Amino acid sequence: MSTFHHKVAVVTGAGSGIGRALALGLAARGARLALSDIDEAGLGETAELAARAGATVHHQRLDVSDRDAFEAYASTVAAHFGVVHQIYNNAGVARSGPVLEFSYNDYERVLNINLWGVIHGTKAFLPHLIASGDGHVVNVSSLNGLMAYPGSSAYCTSKFAVRGFTEALRIEMLQDRLPVGVTVVHPGGVKTNITNNAMASAREAGVELSAADVKRARDYEQRFLRLSPDAAAKTILDGVAAGKPRVLVGNDAKAIDKLVRLLPRLYPRIVARVTPSRAAR
Protein backbone atom coordinates (compact mmCIF):
# COMPACT_ATOMS: atom_id res chain seq x y z
CA MET A 1 0.00 0.00 0.00
CA SER A 2 1.46 3.36 -1.05
CA THR A 3 0.38 6.67 0.39
CA PHE A 4 1.07 10.17 -0.88
CA HIS A 5 0.91 12.69 1.98
CA HIS A 6 4.27 14.45 2.32
CA LYS A 7 5.90 11.90 0.00
CA VAL A 8 8.31 13.17 -2.65
CA ALA A 9 7.05 12.16 -6.10
CA VAL A 10 8.96 12.62 -9.35
CA VAL A 11 6.92 13.01 -12.56
CA THR A 12 8.49 13.15 -16.03
CA GLY A 13 6.60 14.54 -18.99
CA ALA A 14 4.74 16.79 -16.54
CA GLY A 15 4.19 19.64 -18.97
CA SER A 16 0.86 18.38 -20.31
CA GLY A 17 -1.57 15.48 -20.58
CA ILE A 18 -1.34 12.59 -18.16
CA GLY A 19 1.87 13.99 -16.66
CA ARG A 20 0.21 17.26 -15.69
CA ALA A 21 -2.85 15.44 -14.37
CA LEU A 22 -0.62 13.15 -12.29
CA ALA A 23 1.19 16.16 -10.85
CA LEU A 24 -2.06 17.87 -9.87
CA GLY A 25 -3.54 14.63 -8.56
CA LEU A 26 -0.47 14.05 -6.41
CA ALA A 27 -0.61 17.65 -5.19
CA ALA A 28 -4.24 17.16 -4.14
CA ARG A 29 -3.17 14.09 -2.16
CA GLY A 30 -0.49 16.00 -0.28
CA ALA A 31 2.68 14.97 -2.15
CA ARG A 32 5.78 17.10 -2.65
CA LEU A 33 6.67 17.25 -6.32
CA ALA A 34 9.72 17.09 -8.57
CA LEU A 35 8.45 17.83 -12.06
CA SER A 36 10.28 17.70 -15.38
CA ASP A 37 9.60 18.03 -19.08
CA ILE A 38 11.51 19.05 -22.19
CA ASP A 39 8.77 21.66 -22.79
CA GLU A 40 9.73 24.44 -20.38
CA ALA A 41 6.61 26.53 -20.99
CA GLY A 42 4.22 23.66 -20.30
CA LEU A 43 6.31 22.56 -17.33
CA GLY A 44 6.17 26.05 -15.83
CA GLU A 45 2.39 26.10 -16.15
CA THR A 46 2.08 22.74 -14.40
CA ALA A 47 4.43 23.83 -11.61
CA GLU A 48 2.39 26.98 -11.06
CA LEU A 49 -0.89 25.06 -10.96
CA ALA A 50 0.54 22.53 -8.49
CA ALA A 51 1.93 25.29 -6.28
CA ARG A 52 -1.48 26.99 -6.26
CA ALA A 53 -2.91 23.68 -5.09
CA GLY A 54 -0.60 23.87 -2.08
CA ALA A 55 2.21 21.55 -3.17
CA THR A 56 5.91 22.14 -2.64
CA VAL A 57 7.31 22.01 -6.18
CA HIS A 58 10.75 21.63 -7.72
CA HIS A 59 10.70 21.83 -11.51
CA GLN A 60 13.46 21.51 -14.06
CA ARG A 61 13.76 21.01 -17.81
CA LEU A 62 14.90 17.46 -18.59
CA ASP A 63 15.56 15.42 -21.71
CA VAL A 64 14.84 11.90 -20.45
CA SER A 65 16.87 10.36 -23.27
CA ASP A 66 20.05 11.96 -21.85
CA ARG A 67 21.45 9.48 -19.31
CA ASP A 68 23.97 11.85 -17.74
CA ALA A 69 21.37 14.58 -17.42
CA PHE A 70 18.96 12.18 -15.72
CA GLU A 71 21.61 11.00 -13.26
CA ALA A 72 22.44 14.61 -12.40
CA TYR A 73 18.73 15.40 -12.07
CA ALA A 74 18.23 12.54 -9.60
CA SER A 75 21.08 13.85 -7.46
CA THR A 76 19.63 17.38 -7.58
CA VAL A 77 16.15 16.23 -6.54
CA ALA A 78 17.50 14.04 -3.73
CA ALA A 79 19.63 16.89 -2.44
CA HIS A 80 16.72 19.35 -2.67
CA PHE A 81 14.20 17.23 -0.75
CA GLY A 82 16.53 14.95 1.24
CA VAL A 83 14.53 11.90 0.18
CA VAL A 84 12.62 10.55 -2.85
CA HIS A 85 9.73 8.09 -2.55
CA GLN A 86 8.07 7.72 -5.94
CA ILE A 87 8.87 8.13 -9.62
CA TYR A 88 6.33 8.28 -12.43
CA ASN A 89 8.18 7.63 -15.69
CA ASN A 90 5.56 9.14 -17.95
CA ALA A 91 7.42 11.06 -20.69
CA GLY A 92 6.88 9.67 -24.18
CA VAL A 93 6.52 10.39 -27.89
CA ALA A 94 4.64 8.78 -30.76
CA ARG A 95 5.77 8.44 -34.37
CA SER A 96 4.08 6.31 -37.00
CA GLY A 97 5.05 4.69 -40.26
CA PRO A 98 5.41 1.22 -41.79
CA VAL A 99 8.55 -0.77 -41.03
CA LEU A 100 9.69 -0.66 -44.67
CA GLU A 101 9.71 3.15 -44.64
CA PHE A 102 10.46 4.00 -41.01
CA SER A 103 14.03 5.28 -40.69
CA TYR A 104 16.62 4.11 -38.18
CA ASN A 105 16.77 7.65 -36.81
CA ASP A 106 13.03 7.56 -36.17
CA TYR A 107 13.34 4.23 -34.34
CA GLU A 108 16.17 5.60 -32.23
CA ARG A 109 14.24 8.74 -31.32
CA VAL A 110 11.17 6.82 -30.13
CA LEU A 111 13.16 4.18 -28.24
CA ASN A 112 15.52 6.74 -26.68
CA ILE A 113 12.61 8.58 -25.10
CA ASN A 114 9.95 5.92 -24.51
CA LEU A 115 12.21 3.07 -23.40
CA TRP A 116 15.58 4.50 -22.41
CA GLY A 117 13.85 7.38 -20.64
CA VAL A 118 12.07 4.83 -18.43
CA ILE A 119 15.29 2.88 -17.84
CA HIS A 120 17.25 6.05 -17.06
CA GLY A 121 14.61 7.27 -14.62
CA THR A 122 14.28 3.93 -12.87
CA LYS A 123 18.01 3.34 -12.48
CA ALA A 124 18.79 6.93 -11.48
CA PHE A 125 16.15 7.05 -8.75
CA LEU A 126 15.93 3.42 -7.59
CA PRO A 127 18.72 3.72 -4.96
CA HIS A 128 16.92 6.74 -3.50
CA LEU A 129 13.58 4.92 -3.47
CA ILE A 130 15.11 1.96 -1.66
CA ALA A 131 16.75 4.29 0.86
CA SER A 132 13.39 5.96 1.55
CA GLY A 133 12.05 2.70 2.98
CA ASP A 134 8.74 3.18 1.14
CA GLY A 135 9.45 3.58 -2.57
CA HIS A 136 7.38 3.08 -5.67
CA VAL A 137 8.26 2.95 -9.38
CA VAL A 138 5.41 3.68 -11.79
CA ASN A 139 6.22 3.17 -15.47
CA VAL A 140 3.72 4.22 -18.12
CA SER A 141 3.39 1.75 -20.98
CA SER A 142 0.32 1.85 -23.22
CA LEU A 143 -2.57 -0.07 -24.66
CA ASN A 144 0.07 -0.74 -27.34
CA GLY A 145 2.14 -2.49 -24.72
CA LEU A 146 -0.61 -5.12 -24.75
CA MET A 147 -1.51 -5.22 -28.42
CA ALA A 148 0.51 -4.40 -31.54
CA TYR A 149 -0.88 -2.03 -34.16
CA PRO A 150 0.18 -1.62 -37.80
CA GLY A 151 2.21 1.46 -38.60
CA SER A 152 3.32 1.82 -34.98
CA SER A 153 6.20 -0.65 -34.74
CA ALA A 154 8.55 1.75 -32.94
CA TYR A 155 5.91 2.85 -30.43
CA CYS A 156 4.73 -0.73 -29.82
CA THR A 157 8.31 -1.94 -29.42
CA SER A 158 9.01 0.71 -26.81
CA LYS A 159 5.80 0.10 -24.88
CA PHE A 160 6.06 -3.70 -24.91
CA ALA A 161 9.63 -3.27 -23.65
CA VAL A 162 8.51 -0.93 -20.85
CA ARG A 163 6.07 -3.61 -19.75
CA GLY A 164 8.74 -6.33 -19.69
CA PHE A 165 11.29 -4.11 -17.97
CA THR A 166 8.81 -3.11 -15.28
CA GLU A 167 7.56 -6.63 -14.62
CA ALA A 168 11.16 -7.90 -14.31
CA LEU A 169 11.93 -5.08 -11.88
CA ARG A 170 8.91 -5.97 -9.76
CA ILE A 171 10.09 -9.58 -9.47
CA GLU A 172 13.57 -8.41 -8.44
CA MET A 173 12.16 -6.14 -5.74
CA LEU A 174 10.06 -9.04 -4.42
CA GLN A 175 12.97 -11.51 -4.57
CA ASP A 176 15.30 -9.21 -2.65
CA ARG A 177 12.55 -8.01 -0.30
CA LEU A 178 13.34 -4.40 -1.06
CA PRO A 179 10.84 -1.72 0.04
CA VAL A 180 9.83 -0.60 -3.45
CA GLY A 181 6.47 -1.22 -5.08
CA VAL A 182 6.42 -1.46 -8.87
CA THR A 183 3.50 -0.69 -11.17
CA VAL A 184 3.16 -0.74 -14.95
CA VAL A 185 0.39 1.40 -16.42
CA HIS A 186 -1.46 0.72 -19.68
CA PRO A 187 -3.54 3.76 -20.65
CA GLY A 188 -6.07 3.43 -23.42
CA GLY A 189 -7.31 6.42 -25.40
CA VAL A 190 -6.62 9.51 -23.30
CA LYS A 191 -7.18 13.08 -24.53
CA THR A 192 -3.61 14.34 -24.60
CA ASN A 193 -1.38 16.30 -26.99
CA ILE A 194 0.21 13.11 -28.32
CA THR A 195 -1.34 13.48 -31.80
CA ASN A 196 -0.25 17.11 -32.19
CA ASN A 197 3.18 16.30 -30.83
CA ALA A 198 3.58 13.36 -33.19
CA MET A 199 2.72 15.50 -36.21
CA ALA A 200 5.01 18.31 -35.07
CA SER A 201 7.83 15.83 -34.54
CA ALA A 202 7.31 14.39 -38.02
CA ARG A 203 7.45 17.86 -39.59
CA GLU A 204 10.63 18.68 -37.65
CA ALA A 205 12.17 15.52 -39.08
CA GLY A 206 11.34 16.71 -42.60
CA VAL A 207 8.34 14.45 -43.17
CA GLU A 208 5.71 16.04 -45.41
CA LEU A 209 2.23 15.35 -44.06
CA SER A 210 -0.54 15.26 -46.61
CA ALA A 211 -4.07 16.45 -45.93
CA ALA A 212 -5.05 12.78 -45.75
CA ASP A 213 -2.37 12.17 -43.09
CA VAL A 214 -3.66 15.03 -40.95
CA LYS A 215 -7.28 13.90 -41.39
CA ARG A 216 -6.40 10.36 -40.29
CA ALA A 217 -4.66 11.71 -37.22
CA ARG A 218 -7.65 13.91 -36.35
CA ASP A 219 -10.09 11.07 -36.96
CA TYR A 220 -8.06 8.81 -34.69
CA GLU A 221 -7.95 11.51 -32.03
CA GLN A 222 -11.71 12.05 -32.10
CA ARG A 223 -12.58 8.36 -32.27
CA PHE A 224 -10.19 6.87 -29.74
CA LEU A 225 -8.78 9.58 -27.43
CA ARG A 226 -11.79 10.11 -25.20
CA LEU A 227 -10.80 9.64 -21.56
CA SER A 228 -9.79 12.81 -19.74
CA PRO A 229 -6.24 13.03 -18.34
CA ASP A 230 -7.72 13.76 -14.89
CA ALA A 231 -9.74 10.53 -14.96
CA ALA A 232 -6.68 8.63 -16.15
CA ALA A 233 -4.52 10.09 -13.39
CA LYS A 234 -7.09 9.19 -10.73
CA THR A 235 -7.15 5.58 -11.95
CA ILE A 236 -3.35 5.44 -11.88
CA LEU A 237 -2.99 6.96 -8.42
CA ASP A 238 -5.75 4.77 -6.99
CA GLY A 239 -3.92 1.77 -8.41
CA VAL A 240 -0.61 2.89 -6.90
CA ALA A 241 -2.31 3.48 -3.55
CA ALA A 242 -3.66 -0.09 -3.69
CA GLY A 243 -0.24 -1.48 -4.61
CA LYS A 244 -1.43 -2.91 -7.92
CA PRO A 245 1.31 -4.36 -10.13
CA ARG A 246 -0.63 -3.42 -13.27
CA VAL A 247 -3.15 -0.67 -13.95
CA LEU A 248 -5.40 -0.70 -17.01
CA VAL A 249 -6.73 2.78 -17.74
CA GLY A 250 -10.02 2.96 -19.61
CA ASN A 251 -12.51 0.42 -20.88
CA ASP A 252 -10.65 0.14 -24.18
CA ALA A 253 -7.48 -0.99 -22.43
CA LYS A 254 -9.47 -3.55 -20.44
CA ALA A 255 -11.19 -4.84 -23.58
CA ILE A 256 -7.93 -5.10 -25.52
CA ASP A 257 -6.29 -6.94 -22.62
CA LYS A 258 -9.08 -9.53 -22.69
CA LEU A 259 -8.98 -9.84 -26.48
CA VAL A 260 -5.24 -10.48 -26.57
CA ARG A 261 -5.34 -13.00 -23.73
CA LEU A 262 -8.37 -14.88 -25.06
CA LEU A 263 -7.39 -14.84 -28.74
CA PRO A 264 -3.60 -14.56 -28.92
CA ARG A 265 -3.36 -16.20 -32.33
CA LEU A 266 -6.43 -14.59 -33.84
CA TYR A 267 -6.16 -10.98 -32.70
CA PRO A 268 -3.54 -9.95 -35.34
CA ARG A 269 -5.95 -11.06 -38.06
CA ILE A 270 -8.77 -9.12 -36.42
CA VAL A 271 -6.63 -5.97 -36.23
CA ALA A 272 -5.48 -6.41 -39.84
CA ARG A 273 -9.08 -6.78 -40.99
CA VAL A 274 -10.47 -3.73 -39.19
CA THR A 275 -7.49 -1.46 -39.90
CA PRO A 276 -7.26 0.08 -43.37
CA SER A 277 -4.24 -1.18 -45.25
CA ARG A 278 -1.62 1.30 -46.38
CA ALA A 279 -2.82 0.86 -49.94
CA ALA A 280 -6.26 2.06 -48.84
CA ARG A 281 -4.97 5.05 -46.92
Q: How would you characterize the overall build of this protein?
A:
The chain is 53% helix and 13% strand. It is of the alpha/beta class and 281 residues long. It contains eleven helices and seven strands. The chain has a seven-stranded parallel beta sheet with strand order 3-2-1-4-5-6-7, sandwiched between helices. 43% of the residues are buried. α1 (17-28) runs parallel beside α2 (40-52), α1 crosses α9 (229-241) and α3 runs parallel beside α5 (116-132). β5, α6 and β6 (180-187) form a beta-alpha-beta unit. It has a single domain, classed as NAD(P)-binding Rossmann-like Domain (Rossmann fold), CATH 3.40.50.720. It is globular.
User: How many strands in all?
Assistant: 7
Derived structural class: alpha/beta
Q: Roughly how many Å apart are the termini?
A: 47 Å
The CATH topology corresponds to Rossmann fold
Number of spatially distinct domains: 1
Cα shape: globular
Chart the SSEs and their pairings:
Blueprint (H helix, E strand, L loop, with lengths): L7 E4 L5 H12 L3 E6 L2 H13 L4 E5 L5 H15 L4 E4 L14 H11 L1 H17 L2 E6 L12 H23 L4 E8 L6 H11 L6 H14 L4 H13 L4 E4 L1 H12 L4 H8 L7
Parallel strand pairs: 1-2, 1-4, 2-3, 4-5, 5-6, 6-7
Helix pairs in contact: 1-2, 1-9, 3-5, 4-6
Keywords:
single chain, 11 helices, Rossmann fold
